[in-house]
Design a protein that fits this description.
This protein is 41% helix and 16% strand. The chain has 76 residues and is of the alpha+beta class. The protein has a two-stranded antiparallel sheet with strand order 1-2.
Length: 76
């Protein structure tokens, strides 16, 4: 874990190793107990294609499985 401090103008500089690993674009998510930086890919669609390249089910099949799992978890 590393630390970063805001400068006089309110800017936050991330350590080099963080920028090299996660990139330079982030979304800031406000949580009830702090914030979270979520890396944003330069091309989000390419990132999604890469992430799901080995998934052989259709979007509809995945949606149905998710719905069934949610209903099962809810006790229906």
């Amino acid at each position: 874990m590393s630390e970063a401090t805001l400068d006089g103008r309110g800017r936050l500089t991330l350590p080099k190793e963080v920028r090299e690993r996660y990139g330079e674009h982030y979304r800031i998510v406000q949580l009830h107990d702090g914030i979270k930086l979520v890396p944003v890919e330069d091309d989000p669609l390419d990132a999604l294609r890469s992430e799901f390249a080995d998934v052989e089910k259709t979007a509809e099949e995945l949606r149905q499985e998710g719905r069934k799992a949610a209903l099962d978890e809810a006790g229906r």
